[in-house]
Write a structure and sequence with these properties.
CNF1/YfiH-like putative cysteine hydrolases; 6 helices; 279 residues; 15 strands
Length: 279
C-alpha cells in the first residue's frame, strides 16, 4: 500500500510532495478550512463564492492562499461546476477567470488542464473527489471534480481521452485521488448503484457494500481508481489519499456532515516557469 501522498504544509493546505520533488515547478494540493477570514464560517478559509459568504472575505482568503503558494491571484482559473463531465484546456487569455467572483468562472465545467506556464488550476470541493493529473514528460497538469454524477458519467475517462488527443500516452500520466468523503460516511441508494454497476464486471470486486435494503456505503475514490485503470492508467501511477473530508472535522468542510451549510476547500494544481507551447 502506498503511503499517504498528501502531506500537510502549515495549517492552510496539503500538497503532493512526491510530484513537487519530481518537478519543482509544479505544486498540487488541497486546502483545509483553517487559517482564513470567513465570518460566516467561523473565521475559516472558505474559498467558495457560491455559498453565501461575504465576497470580500472569500477574496481575502484566496489572496492569502495566493501569497502562501506564490501563485498570483490573476494566474488562477476557476469554473462554474455543475457535476458534469465537460473538460476545458486552459489557454492564454483565460487566466483570472473565476478568481475574484463566481460570474467570471468558466461555465458548465468540471475539469481543467493546461501546459501553460504560470497557470494555477482550481476547483471547489466539500466531499466530492478531486482528481489530479500530471505528465512530467509533457509538462501537462489537470484537475477534475468528481461527485457521484461526474464519476459514473466518466469525467476521469474524459480527461484521459483529452490528453490522449494531445499525444500523451497513459503510461506518461500520473494521477492522484485527493481528500474526499470516505465510504463509511457516504451512503447512497439503488439509483446511484445502478449507474455505478455500469462500470463493474462480474469478476471485479465492487466499490460498495450493502448495509441495509437499498442502502449502500460507496467508495467513490475506489470507483474512480477503477475507471482510471480501465482508461489505461497503470495502477502504479495512481496515488490515493486516506484523508476523509467528513471524518475530519478539524481540517475540512463537509457538505454531507454539515447538512449543506458549509464552506468550500480548493483543490489546486499549478505550473510555473517553463516556456511551453499550448499544444
Amino acid at each position: 500500500m502506498m503511503t499517504e501522498p498528501f502531506i500537510k504544509q502549515d495549517k492552510e493546505y496539503f500538497y503532493i510532495k512526491e510530484w513537487t520533488e519530481i518537478a519543482p515547478h509544479v505544486i498540487a494540493g488541497f486546502t483545509t478550512k483553517n487559517g482564513g477570514f470567513s465570518e460566516k464560517f467561523n473565521g475559516t478559509l472558505n474559498c467558495g463564492f457560491h455559498v453565501g459568504d461575504d465576497l470580500d472575505a472569500v477574496r481575502s482568503n484566496r489572496n492569502h492562499l495566493a501569497d502562501k503558494l506564490d501563485f498570483p491571484i490573476n494566474s488562477w482559473v476557476g469554473c462554474e461546476q455543475t457535476h458534469g463531465t465537460r473538460i476545458v484546456q486552459v489557454k492564454r487569455g483565460q487566466h483570472g477567470k473565476g478568481s475574484f467572483d463566481y460570474d467570471s468562472s468558466i461555465k458548465d465545467t468540471d475539469g481543467l488542464y493546461s501546459n501553460l506556464q504560470d497557470t494555477f488550476l482550481t476547483l471547489c470541493y466539500a466531499d466530492c473527489v478531486p482528481i489530479y493529473f500530471f505528465s512530467a514528460k509533457h509538462d501537462m497538469i489537470g484537475i477534475a471534480h468528481a461527485g457521484w454524477k461526474g464519476t459514473v458519467n466518466g469525467i476521469a475517462k474524459e480527461m484521459i481521452a483529452a490528453w490522449h488527443g494531445k499525444g500523451i500516452r497513459s503510461s506518461d500520466i500520473m494521477v492522484a485521488i485527493g481528500p474526499s468523503i470516505c465510504e463509511k460516511c457516504y451512503i447512497v441508494d439503488d439509483r446511484v448503484i445502478k449507474d455505478v454497476d455500469t462500470w463493474i464486471n462480474s469478476e471485479e470486486s465492487k466499490p460498495y457494500h450493502e448495509i441495509s435494503t437499498g442502502q449502500y456505503q460507496l467508495n467513490l475514490r475506489k470507483l474512480n481508481q477503477m475507471i482510471l485503470e480501465k482508461s489505461g492508467i497503470p495502477s502504479e501511477n495512481i496515488y490515493i489519499t486516506n484523508l476523509c473530508t467528513s471524518c475530519d472535522h478539524e481540517e475540512f468542510y463537509s457538505h454531507r456532515r454539515d447538512q449543506g451549510k458549509t464552506g468550500r476547500m480548493i483543490g489546486f494544481i499549478g505550473l510555473k516557469g517553463y516556456d511551453v507551447s499550448e499544444g
